[in-house]
Amino acid sequence: MGMGDGAARDGGRSGPRYRLLFRYRVDGDLRFVSHHDTVRLFERALARAALPVGFSAGFNPRPRVSVPVPRPVGVASDDEALLIELTQGVEPAEALHRLRAQLPAGMELLAVEVLKPQDVLQPESVRYRLDLPDQPPSDLPQRVRDFLASDIVEVQRENPKARGIGRINVRRYLAALSLTDGGVEFDLRWTPQGTARPVEIAQVLGFEPDSVTHRIRRLEIRWQPRTRSKNP
User: Candidates 3.90.1300.10, 3.40.50.2020, 3.40.50.720, 3.30.70.580; correct CATH number of 8-115?
Assistant: First the structure.
């Protein structure tokens, strides 16, 4: 599929857009790369792959590349999402092949799909696993039970806008929590008001947050139904 000369001159900002959703995995040292640097990594990789990425309008146009569910620094992941907009259609398998060849070790593309124009990409929840150390908190089973039985479980969180420390009820974001063989698995709701951080869940369970980040892995991002409902 092609595009008009006018769209070519403005970098595709006013022309048709073709959206691709890539799923990928992050492991090793790359789990310590920040969200901002992850986006920049993909921007450079897409340029090397020579994919026709569109740009935003305005005085400082940026590539239409986003990671819609930021990954906490230090957390490995089996399920990440990358959304890009192209100025012309590219076969998904070809795009996957070209981009995969440009990514560093520790970042692996798993799949790609084409999003329809009416599709809305909205996360619903994110599932994590915390692998237990050799000596987990002795009261961990009771902490899990207490957490699930409570309506309010608050932790302290730094608030950059208020330039201070506030408190947040992480229980409102907890959708599921269970002890498994050698670990703890939990689902965190993703809402317009925000979400809990996986290290905050670990803190409630009796772990030192700074000492368990490397033990946390994102297992799955679950999405809300993607198609907009039509007005009757």
Answer: 3.30.70.580
Question: Does position 79 have pLDDT exceeding 90, yes or no?
Answer: yes
123-223 shares the fold of 8-115: yes
Domain ranges of the chain: 8-115, 123-223
- Strand 216-223 to strand 76-86: parallel, antiparallel, or no bridges (unpaired)? parallel
Q: 123-223, which class in CATH? A: alpha beta
Q: What is the pLDDT of residues 13-51, one digit of tens each?
A: 555 689 999 999 999 999 999 999 999 999 999 999 999
Cα–Cα distance measured from residue 121 to residue 63, given in angstroms and rounded to the nearest whole number: 18
User: What are the C-alpha distances in Å from 91 to residues 87, 117, 225?
Assistant: 13, 17, 24
Report residue 224: phi and psi, to 5°.
Answer: -70, 160
Of 22, 20, 48, 26, the C-alpha closest to 38 is: 26
Residue 198: Cβ-neighbour burial (10 angstroms; 0-12, 13-18, 19+):
buried
Tokens of 180: 């498994």
- Return phi, psi of residue 77, to 5°: -150, 140
144 and 178 Cβ atoms separated by less than 8 Å: yes
